[in-house]
Design brief:
three-stranded antiparallel beta sheet; Tetrahydropterin Synthase, Chain A; alpha+beta; seven-stranded mixed beta sheet
């Protein structure tokens, strides 16, 4: 099968954020920050009536806006069993299972629908948000693979990849809120 794709790695695909990892044994890192960089690649088939798979002019602002949405924020995982998050009076209170607490102005925090704020889970989040936004512009684009890389420091990046056994329309990928989708992932 012949496929086409694009890879984008612009300097402005970045975000600065504070976070801490929560480990499986119930311990955690100290709150700290990174200047993250993001790049992505998407592959599929080229519509026979077109010469462009996905226009750079359309996808670049989408990826940038997804990065900007978490820029200069403290990132907290909504789905971690060791962390409770409460919002009261425009304040976020995060309570770790050991009793440690943090209080933040609500506007300075993004609570993400992920298990942890690892680079791997951030790559997954960015990929899913980009798919949702891109599907509005290219609902019928047939996708074989989409990949996001999140670099937390130079030379150190995590990769999240969705690769399908068969081509899958973007609109079906976006319809699924879960990691799984109506399309069959390849093994």
């Amino acid at each position: 099968m012949e496929t086409f794709g694009i890879r984008i790695y612009k300097e402005y695909f970045n975000f600065a954020a504070a976070h801490f990892l929560i480990f499986e044994d119930g311990t955690r890192e100290e709150l700290h920050g990174h200047n993250y960089r993001v790049n992505m690649q998407i592959e599929g088939i080229l519509d026979k009536t077109k010469d462009v798979f996905i226009d750079f002019l359309h996808i670049k602002p989408i990826v940038k806006s997804v990065c900007d949405s978490i820029d200069h924020r403290t990132l907290l995982p909504a789905n971690n069993p060791f962390l409770r998050i409460a919002i009261e009076n425009q304040q976020i209170r995060a309570t770790f299972h050991t009793g440690d607490q943090w209080h933040f102005p609500e506007r300075d925090v993004i609570v993400l629908p992920i298990l942890n704020t690892s680079s791997e889970r951030l790559a997954q989040y960015l990929c899913r948000r980009t798919i949702a936004m891109l599907s509005d512009k290219y609902p019928e684009s047939m996708i074989r693979k989409i990949e996001f890389n999140v670099e937390e420091s130079p030379g150190q990046a995590a990769i999240y990849r969705l690769e399908y056994a068969e081509l899958c329309p973007l609109k079906l990928l976006a319809a699924s809120e879960e990691v799984s989708s109506p399309c069959t992932l390849s093994h």
